[in-house]
Amino acid sequence: MGSRTEGLQRLLVIINKLKGKKRYIPTRELKRYIAEAMEMRGYSGKSGRTLERDIDDIQSLFGISIAYAKREQGYYIKEEDESIPERYGQLLQNFDLLNALEGDTNLRTYVLAEHHRPLPSECLPMLISAIKHRHPVTFRYILVRQDDKVEEKKVLPHYLKESNQRWYLLAYEGDVLKTFGVDRIRDLRICASETFKRNMDINVDELFRDCYGIWNQPDIPVEDVELKYDALDGKFLKSVPLHHSQQVLTDNADEFRIKVHLRITNDFVMELLSRSRSLEVISPPHLRERVRKVYEEALKRNE
């Protein structure tokens, strides 16, 4: 088990290095980085593995093709299977955690796991297979906001995305890219006799840039939102920003004020309410009124 763990860690270390800011990594630099990273993880001395063997294993296990550019004198990622989730850093971190436990299988002695993990779904392996092999899928979909109405769907699956302990399927229904909660999918079927051309022009980073969480509703305008908190809540919002667009306007002993630029969706409003102890919505006025009404109705229910 130890040798397998070491080998997989080496592969992840190499991938992490090659997915960095530098396009080409010279042989000497890459080998030095691998040696230092593995020594830091408790593996000293030579492993007996060659860089060429590691590169072959990376291609086999992760679908990532690594090549050497003679002109630039460095290794680089030539291409990678787009169906592989880009979580190499997170996977490496998990291996580092297990390695630090030095073989102790009683994980609860050291680590308290979060109870609210992404819910397991029997649909995930089928959806990953359908995405990878470009097969349409059909399923029955439960519309929670419409009294659990059920609709028949046939879509072209493109991506799986995790958000707030839930999995979501990004798929084309007709010409529209839509989001489906995997936990609301029933009777999933893969149309194995059909294939489609996957749209590789989707800019995934931009797709959710102006939204909070998974719901990107183009009909909702992108707005500047100014929020005020006390200094205590400010400490938490500095360590874990509300949104990638967060700008700190004021930070002192009396208040913490920020501005974010996004679409004001239901998910975003719910997130604001989760830290309502000191929240004050400064702008826009319609969001301030929306939050006020939520508080007012909650007060009536709890009188």
UniProtKB/TrEMBL annotation:
Domain WCX, first and last residues per copy: 225-298
Domain WYL, first and last residues per copy: 124-190
PROSITE patterns: WYL
Pfam families from the UniProt entry: WCX (PF25583), WYL (PF13280)
Domain of life: Bacteria
PANTHER family: PTHR34580, SLL5097 PROTEIN (PTHR34580:SF9)
Protein name from the UniProt record: WYL domain-containing protein
Species name: Bacteroides gallinaceum
